[in-house]
Amino acid sequence: MIASAHPAHLLVVDDNKVNRMMLSRNLGLQGHIVETAENGEEGLEKIRSGTFDLVLLDIDMPVMNGYEVLEACLKDVELRQIPIIMTSAMDELDAVVKCVELGAEDYLTKPVNPILLRARVNASLEKKRLRDEQRKLFRTFATKEVAEELLRTGFSLGGKQVTASVLFADIRSFTTIAESQDPTETIDLLNEYFSLMFDAITDNGGTVNQMVGDGLLAMFGAPIYFKDHGEKAVRAALQMLERLKEFNQRQIARGKTPLHIGIGIASGNMIVGYTGTQNRAIYTCIGDTVNLASRIEEYTKEALRPLLIDNYTREGLPDDIRVEDLGRIVFKGKHQAVNVFAVVAG
Amino acid sequence: MSSIDLKIFNELREATGAEFISELVHAFLEDAPVQIAQMRSALTASDVEAFRRAAHTLKSNAATFGAAELSALARELEMLGRENNLAVGNRIEVLNEAFERVKNRLNELE
User: Fold this and answer.
1) CA distance B110 to B105
2) Regarding beta strands A207-212 and A158-171, do their DSSP bridges make them parallel or antiparallel, or are they unpaired?
């Protein structure tokens, strides 16, 4: 038998010694590295502590059966990535169907046919390899949350209505800074700035959605909803300002210009989803709330305050975040005046 | 009915190697009497689950070697266990005799 092109690390879970020997031998001959476990509990322990590419799991086992092991793996975000092939007797097909419906990758009946074993294992490994590659690619170009949502639900243009918070941030007079230094220095500056801001945002559950020039747009509460999206957005903004302060101290020490930013946050209904074409699309948010956040961010220049929020966002804030009412402002393109608040301290 | 289906046994030997088959036969011949004993004690203790599981394992292993008769007898017992029916009559004796024939044949083949 020809060894597999991609040797993998496999786990065989079976309470029957003859089955363990058979599967291990066949998989070993196919070029894989095989470990075994004698019952479901031991199997799950090994799955949790090991780095397996694939698991062959018997259904009918003492202590913890294959169905329970499968359920535990599927509940775990990390373990869910490992393909599981159920192995069972011919007359247990009812149980097998249940497992496949639950999320098992495939199944094999025992006694296992070596050719079928090879085909199923290699197909599952190949599918996993593609999924891993896709996940890696997604994570480079999209946020982790968007990548996971894409992998779960698939890609389709179009959106859905959600309640969330949007944060806009912009560097003040960036054009002037950019013009006064050489382009590579500007890129380095932006990269350092963005990486600090990203951390502040993701640490508070937000998702950086877009970067345009020196501006960025982050969402809180979408694509994954959480109730305190407004508070999280404000805390992220406060952390952004805090980190920028430290960054500026380093800038000054290096003899460089410090950066000043404005942040605007608005909360409410918006449409989130993919816009673009079938070939090139981005996950984004649109609607009045998004528009308002952008306007509020622009208003920070006039108000001479770095962090402004709308009333909806303010209503969701706990007492430890203090705000100052700046009154009602009529923004360009809006008919009604909007109450704007400056966040004083958190 | 032959105790071992030679086609299945030879295919198994070809796919996994003579040395491995010898080990596998060894494991089976060591484990099967344990399973038969487990079935007997499970009957005495009226432990349906232990009875069913022992029969299930024996059924599976007999099928691996192409021991169709033994596998079918074990399967019958497994099904009775699954139906909570421990009125097995002389089936364990019949099973044990079938196992002895399989054992002799496997020792010859090896």
Assistant:
1) 9
2) unpaired
For residues A135 and A174, state if they share a domain: no
Is CATH 1.20.120.160 the right assignment for the domain spanning B6-109?
A: yes
* ipTM, two decimals: 0.94
CA distance B88 to chain A (A): 20
Q: Would you call A18 and B15 a contact, using CB atoms and an 8 Å cutoff? A: no
Residue of B nearest to A28 (CA): B16
Last residue of a domain, one of A141, A174, A193: A141
Do B63 and A110 count as a contact with CB atoms less than 8 A apart?
yes
Is there a single domain that holds both residue A136 and residue A161? Answer: no
On whether residue A47 sits in a domain, the answer given is yes
Residue A114: which domain range?
9-141
* CB-based contact B61 A16, cutoff 8 Å: yes
pLDDT in tens, A49-107: 988 999 999 999 988 999 999 999 998 878 988 999 999 987 888 888 999 999 999 99
Q: Are A60 and A87 in contact (CB under 8 A)?
A: no
Pair A245, A320: CB distance under 8 Å:
no
